[in-house]
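From the pipeline queue, job 12 of 40. The input is one protein chain; the requested action is below.

Action: predict structure.
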Amino acid sequence: MSHKILVIEDDENIQLGLKKALEAESFLVEQAFDGEDGVYLAGTVAPDLIILDIMMPFMNGFEVISELRGEGNEIPIIVLSARVETQDKVRGLKLGADDYMEKPFALEELLARVHRKLGSSIKEEVVFGEFRYSLKTSTLRKSDSAIELSGKEIKLIEFLLKRDGQVVSRDQIISAVWGVSYDGTDRTVDNFILGLRKKIGKEHLVTVRGLGYRFMTKP
């Protein structure tokens, strides 16, 4: 049975990006665009987890947390906010949030936190050809030799490994590696793919014309 996630966020673009990403991970997604609607849906659709913005109309995120926890609602809450001062984080956590992430954010990191909170199982090591990648330590090895990866390359390879055999678009890669607010070009993705291919070989990472890329542990 798929987990259900309630996203309470007034930014339509972020809502759209999160919905696509979460559904691609086989989650069911409910959406609220203000705090009042979010509190209502939290009590009616029985989500397994809430992703919550802070600055919203009618009722802000802090008020949402206070309302839900005051009602005895213990649904896990991950705050996603541009309010990044320490006092804001402390306030959110003291009110009862389970986690607090800053905007702009890396989508892959958010998904990892969602999986962890929901207890989803993720393989700790992926083997493909002569390579081994540890999702626990974010290290890539070929036989007994370590292969150096940049921070962006780590995010990219982990995004691809978790979608073995699936076609992923450039937009999905951009959201996962650079964040949903990134306004760069597709060429950046192509350059990173080219660099990663030089390290792991072309046979594992292929272009799907007009659609994007596919990673395959077994070509």
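Job complete. The first strand starts at residue 4 and ends at 8.
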